[in-house]
Design goal:
This protein is an alpha/beta fold. The protein is built from 8 helices and 8 strands. The model has no long low-confidence stretch (mean pLDDT 91). One of its GO terms (molecular function) is oxidoreductase activity, acting on CH or CH2 groups, with an iron-sulfur protein as acceptor.
């Protein structure tokens, strides 16, 4: 999913115009089954090979140990929904009213991140923005202006080296971060957190439906809709339907899967 060296400066400039910081990517995803969380692209403070082996959610995960390190205890399968969701302090169902424009789940995720910046709890937010030429392709960005998070709303699909931003964030002097990430990214982040040297890392986790490339996702969209470029929103719903919305004014469409 990486861009050529010729394209990258242009992409960085276009994102900067929206208040989004997008440092050049270094290194590469490891060959094989790597989903490119970004750890293999770290170099300054990590032995990449050892870091991947220690941090990857798919190689040898130890969820009870990680839960104890982060939450103070492992999840109790006999305690409410912890069998399904891990350690829970409280569970709340919430939404923004009215929903934010171009948001996936009403804009609650980016609103939480914006509030962390506004209230001075963090120096920067690490998250994904859409590629300037492809609304579905994720580009890892740092955000320091709460208003700029509006450009990060919506779902991205594809491998996204979010954790490659940790070292640039550190080099820029950011000590307190918020990270919006999916499970494979957050597991790796927590596994390495104590070696990174940040004062505090707040996590806003989001679900992940599958591991795939952006190109493969475009193929999937073409199987659902004869004019896939007009699809502006996709949701894998809990009622076993895919919901599609369009940017040409037509009504939403649902497909059973």
């Amino acid at each position: 999913m990486s861009d050529s060296q010729e394209e990258r400066p242009s992409i960085t400039r276009q994102l900067a115009q929206k208040g989004l910081i997008s440092p050049p990517l270094v290194g590469a995803a490891r060959p094989g089954l790597c989903t490119d969380c970004g750890v293999s692209r770290m170099g300054a403070g990590q032995d990449r090979g050892k870091a991947c082996g220690r941090a990857c959610q798919f190689i040898a995960p130890d969820y009870p140990a990680m839960e104890k390190a982060v939450h103070g205890r492992a999840a109790d399968p006999d305690l409410g929904d912890e069998r399904f969701f891990g350690v829970i302090h409280s569970m709340i169902r919430a939404r923004l009213d009215p929903p934010a424009e171009q948001a996936q789940w009403t804009g609650l995720t980016t609103a939480l991140a914006a509030q962390l910046l506004e209230q001075g709890h963090v120096d920067a937010v690490l998250t994904m923005a859409p590629h300037p030429d492809d609304r579905w392709k994720p580009v890892p960005v740092m955000v320091t202006d709460p208003a700029a998070l509006a450009h990060c709303r919506g779902m991205r699909m594809g491998y996204a080296p979010l954790l490659s931003l940790l070292e640039p964030a550190q080099a820029m002097g950011y000590r307190r971060l918020a990270v919006i990430g999916i499970p494979c990214q957050i597991y790796a982040l927590r596994a390495l957190e104590q070696t990174l040297g940040f004062e505090r890392i707040h996590v806003i986790g989001t679900p992940c439906s599958d591991n795939t490339t952006t190109d493969a996702f475009h193929h999937f969209l073409s199987l659902l809709e004869p004019d896939p470029d007009r699809i502006s929103y996709l949701e894998f719903r809990t009622d076993y339907r895919v919901e599609l919305r369009f940017d040409d004014g037509r009504p939403p469409r649902t497909i059973r899967f």
